[in-house]
Amino acid sequence: MRIGVDIRGLLTGRISGIEQYTLCILKALLEIDSRNTYVLFYVSYRDLDEKFRQLIRDYPFLKSDNIEVKTLKWVNFPLLLHALFKPLNWPKADLVCGGLDVMFMPSPRLLPLSAKCAKVTTFHDLVFMIYPQFYTLSSRLWQWQMSYGYEARTSDAIISVSDTTKRDLIRLLQVNPAKIHIVHEGVDQSYFDRPSGEALANIRSKFDLPDKFIYYVGSIEPRKNLGLAVRALAKIRESRSDTMKLVVSGSKNWLSSELYQLVERYGLVSQVIFTGPVDEAEKIALLHLATVFVFPSIYEGFGLMVLEAFAAGCPVITSNVSSLPEVAGDAAVLIDPKNADELANQLNRLLNDSDLRRKISDKGRERARGFTWERSARETLRIIEGVTRQHGG
Question: 75 and 200 share a domain?
């Protein structure tokens, strides 16, 4: 087969959740499948060719023998692409790619395809429809032009990363349940492997980390509910003899200024360390150093950060809503994401009890071993092959 892969999302200049999924699933597919040809597609405009060359340098597996790269020379302006891709349904990306049996979309994006090309699309969440207040007008406009409903209708098969997202697809977009396949994400082996003492010491020195600290990594935006962690930190300050710190890694996203104001209001500027974005190796080291990982998100389509913390042996406190209980099972402490007192109590409980931390850590590592990218890739390839046969490929 000739399998197209839409990699436009990888050329935005930042690697966050969906980009990480795209890279991990593609790497795993290439490791298990040398028979099919994978055609990477993107729109070439301004500096995007150089960004692709940098992507190749950063991720050498993208130079595999069974990879081709095809580009559409076009203005890469979202609203203009929307105007051409949806009403005109042109130009056909599979023809630009020299003919494809199927196009794999790692996330929903408008992309015209001819009738002979099947389409498999991964949906991660519909959070912008459930909590529009967490997004700015420009962010909602961006989500609108993705046309999720249209993409769901025109996909031959849909991959949902969780049962939660599947239920949302059925409820909000009226997708036929038979069309949806649940394929959980995986966690890389590198998270299980403890970094060297030197690497850990360098990270501790770089960010001036104390012996014990609470950790969060992810985007900094309202949905992640970091304000709850800040309020909980203020509460545990009143009951502890030591000065516990919260370390936050990630990029500032929309509507994040309120979090920084909250830190100042509670007088926690010296207790909250913002590292900024960290690379993969730094994130792994921080997870191995952290005493507790806190992830009080209000909504997640999957919650990969929880699995990564599990793999690193870091005890996890996370929310009891959306997909997080599905991912965490009984290996994490689950809290109400609206209850700062509950989070503070559970933080104190874990911070004060090393035996409990060790017990939860062991359960987390065992839980994480059940989620591999190889399994995700095999299930994804099975869906792609099945759709291609049904489509007449």
Answer: no
pTM of the predicted model, to two decimals?
0.93
Cα(159)–Cα(384) distance, integer angstroms: 10
User: Residue 280: which H helix or E strand, with range?
Assistant: helix 280-289
Token pair for residue 150? 């249209």
Cα gap 9→108, rounded to integer Å? 10
DSSP string over 242-254 = S--EEEEES-B-T
Cα separation, 19 vs 36, whole angstroms: 22
Per-residue pLDDT of the chain (393 residues; tens, 9 = 90+): 999 999 999 998 777 789 999 999 999 999 999 999 999 999 998 889 999 999 999 999 999 999 999 998 876 666 666 666 777 777 899 999 999 999 999 999 989 999 999 999 999 999 999 999 888 777 777 777 778 999 999 999 999 999 999 999 999 999 999 999 999 999 999 999 999 999 999 999 999 999 999 999 998 989 999 999 999 999 999 888 778 999 999 988 766 788 999 999 999 999 999 999 999 999 999 999 999 999 999 999 999 999 999 999 999 999 999 999 999 999 999 999 999 999 999 999 999 999 999 999 999 999 999 999 999 999 999 999 999 998 875
Number of folded domains that form the chain: 2
Written as six digits, the tokens of 110 are 């408008």
Is the domain of 106 the same as that of 141? yes
Q: Looking at the structure, do residues 19 and 64 belong to the same domain, yes or no?
A: yes
